[in-house]
């Protein structure tokens, strides 16, 4: 797992979806109910993978490939969570 | 009475979104600030709706009592939200009680002042319409839940709504960050205290939630979503 992967894994699902909307179809394809979910601001990508029984590395690779950008170019914006 | 508030308190409030500094100053200059200690009423069901309200700090419970004495929690109001304002534009009577469930700081505008502000700054009226639209949609969802869903799903949905409004990440999971009793949950979901207690106890024994007398922590957020949304269980997991 690369440093960029670790950063991606520790984003909350809400941060992931707001900074990279292209991942939303990937999430739906994997059967995740995160888009629109009240828990999305509180759960990380890592926790979501675990909850859905997905293998983390493969899941991260799918997410990183979603909008054609390599992992290391991910910009992390902190979104406001209450 | 607390000192007149800084116009900055209105920033970030959906009711005043998009207003310039001059308009915010105008709104705040006409506001009446008040403190409401925990447990006291901000207004009472059936009394003439003298004002529109906005909560600066604390938490207010909006609870309506039916002719048979049965109470229903309509919603909880958090910091930055408007409340009690709709009655100005309907029959002029507050449709429910507003009770401070934590120490509260509130601003209110007399009915005539509120309509005058809306005339001077139409953005306030548009914002109010969008807030009311959002709440109507939420009530439609609740009506559908009450009409069609098992009580367990309704309780899960009620907790998720509260998480959306007042969730806070804590070590053990996601906490609903204000005092919430089992009776409140019963009154939000149209069921009995007994049913809520039975459901929460079952969830506690499965490690999904942890609830003290007044505090609720969701220890397994995903498990609660599975119940609320009727998701298929993850293979190999409970």
TrEMBL record, chain A:
Family annotation (SUPFAM superfamilies): SP0561-like
Q: Which residues form the DUF1858 domain?
A: 10-59
Question: Gene3D superfamilies recorded for this chain?
Answer: SP0561-like (1.10.3910.10)
Return any one Pfam family short name: DUF1858
NCBIfam families documented for this protein: prismane_assoc
Question: PANTHER family recorded for this chain?
Answer: BSL7085 PROTEIN (PTHR39341), DUF1858 DOMAIN-CONTAINING PROTEIN (PTHR39341:SF1)
- Please report the name of this protein according to its UniProt entry: Hybrid cluster protein-associated redox disulfide domain-containing protein
Report the source organism: Azospirillum oryzae
From TrEMBL, chain B:
In this protein, which residues make up the domain named Cyclic nucleotide-binding?
15-104
Pull one GO CC term from this UniProt entry. Answer: cytosol
Q: Which domain of life is it from?
A: Bacteria
Q: Which UniProt keywords apply?
A: DNA-binding, Kinase, Transcription, Transcription regulation, Transferase
Task: Give the matching InterPro entries.
Answer: cNMP-bd_dom (IPR000595), cNMP-bd_dom_sf (IPR018490), Env_Response_Regulators (IPR050397), HTH_CRP (IPR012318), RmlC-like_jellyroll (IPR014710), WH-like_DNA-bd_sf (IPR036388), WH_DNA-bd_sf (IPR036390)
Q: Which Pfam families match?
A: cNMP_binding, HTH_Crp_2
One GO molecular-function annotation for this sequence?
A: DNA-binding transcription factor activity
Q: Which PROSITE patterns match?
A: CNMP_BINDING_3, HTH_CRP_2
Every HTH crp-type domain range: 149-222
Where along the sequence do coiled-coil regions lie?
Answer: none
Q: What name has this protein been given in UniProt?
A: cAMP-binding domain of CRP or a regulatory subunit of cAMP-dependent protein kinases
Q: Which organism is it from?
A: Azospirillum oryzae
């Amino acid at each position: 797992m690369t440093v960029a992967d670790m950063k991606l894994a520790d984003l909350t699902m809400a941060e992931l979806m707001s900074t990279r909307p292209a991942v939303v179809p990937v999430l739906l394809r994997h059967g995740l109910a995160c888009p629109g979910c009240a828990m999305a601001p509180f759960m990380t990508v890592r926790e979501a993978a675990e909850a859905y029984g997905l293998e983390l590395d493969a899941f991260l690779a799918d997410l990183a490939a979603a909008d054609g950008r390599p992992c290391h170019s991910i910009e992390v914006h902190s979104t406001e969570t209450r | 009475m607390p000192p007149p508030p800084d116009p900055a308190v209105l920033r970030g409030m959906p009711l005043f979104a998009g207003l310039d500094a001059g308009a915010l100053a105008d709104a705040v200059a006409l506001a009446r600030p008040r403190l409401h200690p925990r447990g006291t009423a901000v207004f009472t069901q059936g009394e003439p709706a003298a004002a529109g309200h906005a909560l600066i700090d604390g938490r207010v419970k909006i609870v309506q009592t039916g002719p048979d004495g049965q109470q229903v929690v309509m919603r909880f109001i958090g910091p930055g939200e408007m409340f009690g304002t709709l009655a100005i534009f309907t029959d002029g009577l507050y449709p429910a009680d507003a009770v401070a469930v934590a120490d509260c700081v509130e601003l209110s505008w007399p009915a005539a002042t509120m309509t005058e502000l809306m005339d001077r700054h139409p953005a306030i009226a548009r914002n109010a319409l969008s807030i009311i639209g959002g709440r109507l949609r939420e009530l439609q969802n609740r009506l559908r839940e009450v009409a069609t869903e098992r009580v367990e799903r309704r309780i899960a949905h009620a907790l998720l709504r509260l998480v959306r409004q007042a969730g806070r990440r804590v070590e053990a999971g996601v906490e609903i960050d204000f005092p919430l009793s089992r009776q409140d949950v019963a009154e939000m979901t149209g069921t009995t205290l007994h049913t809520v207690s039975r459901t929460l106890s079952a969830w506690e024994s499965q490690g999904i939630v942890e609830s003290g007398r007044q505090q609720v922590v969701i220890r397994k957020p995903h498990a609660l979503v599975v119940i609320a949304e009727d998701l298929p269980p993850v293979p190999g997991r409970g």
